[in-house]
Amino acid sequence: MKVLVTVGTEQFQFDRLMKAVERLAAGQAENQFVVQYGSSQYVPVGSNVEAFTLLPETRYRDVVRNSDVIMTHAGDGSLAMANQLEKPYLLVPRRAKLSEHVDDHQLELADLAGKHHVPTAVSPDVDWLCGELEGFTRQPRFQPFYIDKSRPCDRLRELTLGRRGKVMLVTSGGGHMDTMKAIRPFWDEFESRCWVTLNDTDVGDDSAATVYRGVGPTNRSLVKLCKNYARARRWIDRERPDVVLSTGAAIAVAVMRAAKDVHPATQTIFVEAPTRVADLSLSAKLAIWMRCLDAGTCFHEPIAQQYGHFHLV
């Protein structure tokens, strides 16, 4: 059996999962493990283990298709791909206390998915986690858990009040980009568009649009926030967008603040990720705190109840 282990494109280590996978592989010589370890500092080894940091998206999709089962962090993009290909998958959420992420939104998503009978492995202990992984490999099963990412489209049409000139699309890779592509029926209605993203992000087949590149990685970096703000002022002045639309990533804060400073008529909208179940991402919170967010959408009711800016879809 071919087992794919993936931790997505997060800029945080997931050494706990890597150590558990190494122990699992040592006891399952009959299985082959392909491990995408990302920013993890611990890299699993073994005669039946192949490990890599990242792969180009097309190659990565081939690896996913050729796998029999998937063990993945509770990330938006990885979850969507596993469901799309109908592969048996196990969600292993990251934990903030173990410096695996900035908060526990992956735990919240795993809890929600578990209520829909999706297999999850949530133990903070490496030995116990290894046991959970082993149990899944003995009895793998596919349980669909699908969130329709195109749901914001109708609400976005209402929020933009008929503005259909130029839209500036702000996002990063992984799940953020997946959500942006899912709401394409909305932003395709604009007369023109441009992109703001990071150097390692592919915008796909949208070659006719101008693409601006920010400085990354951006997680909790005040220096890079300031650098991206300086760049964003130039981009906004050049493009004069009617709407700045973001599906996440810290660079959105810099672009939205620049839009309000350079071209106040620009409307700023934040589509929160479907993986955010109980609270907003730090980027969305910063956009509210910096008074540069006009409106947003969210997929889960607890967020809409807490934040007046955000509309449930």
Automatic annotation (TrEMBL):
Pfam families: Glyco_tran_28_C (PF04101). Keywords: Endoplasmic reticulum, Glycosyltransferase, Transferase. Transmembrane segments: none annotated. Residues 3-115 form the Glycosyl transferase family 28 C-terminal domain. It is found in: Endoplasmic reticulum. One of its GO terms (molecular function) is hexosyltransferase activity. One of its GO terms (biological process) is dolichol-linked oligosaccharide biosynthetic process. Belongs to the glycosyltransferase 28 family. This is Undecaprenyldiphospho-muramoylpentapeptide beta-N-acetylglucosaminyltransferase.
